[in-house]
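Exercise 3.2. Students should predict the tertiary structure of the chain below and write it as structure tokens, then compare their answer with the key that follows.

Predict this chain's 3D structure.
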Amino acid sequence: MKKIAIYGKGGIGKSTTTANLSAALAMMGKKVVQIGCDPKADSTLNLLGGDPVMPVMDYYRDHDEAPDFDHIGRTGFGGVFCIETGGPTPGLGCAGRGIIATFDLIGEMEVFERLQPDVVLYDVLGDVVCGGFAAPIREGYAEEVFIVTSGEKMSLYAAENIARAVDNFADRGYAHVGGIILNRRGVENEYSRVKSYADGRHLPIVADIPRSQDIIDFEDQGKTVVEGDPSLPVSQCYFRLAERILSERHGQQQLP
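Answer key:
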């Protein structure tokens, strides 16, 4: 079982990346669990036809007991099992607490033992890598971290903060950064900007995702672009990323 965390600043496209990666892996015959670790709880929306799953923290607020297995998540496109941690009522409590509570529940209910996934993907907000948001790194849930960034200054700044957070736990045998996922925003000299950063970190660029109206069009239908049309060039980018992750060659090669 591969356990991978996808980090990136808010709005950079990490949820779109993670959902399309899940869809691609599922279409390649892999059993996948995707866990959205963001209070917005929208990571798995486009794997579920636009019909959101109830986040774990919402269930805790509405019920006196913890959710049972039938309510911790829901199966979406390609058999991907979708879980959302959710968060506290806006303005009240720690957003990262939802991640910790959900991870504890997943362990208690032996979710992975029951589902036997090939790949577990954690979609984690990376603006603040502390508290619950650092749990996939420091608690050993994920084995590898991939950072989604564009060539924008603040996106690269967040990428560096994430990489430093991973470095802080390196001596404990926790997750390591496996590479950079470039999600293009049309910035001038974007590839060279991201490559310069990646080279400075001795990291490969494991995917180069172009800007695409097709992604937006299919998300409007509650789908990933991979589900909507797997033959599209942008969909093929996600399939190549899935292949790299499965082959374990991503740490040794760089895109030309």
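Discussion points: Residues 137 and 175 are 5 Å apart (CA to CA). DSSP finds eleven helices and eight strands in the chain.
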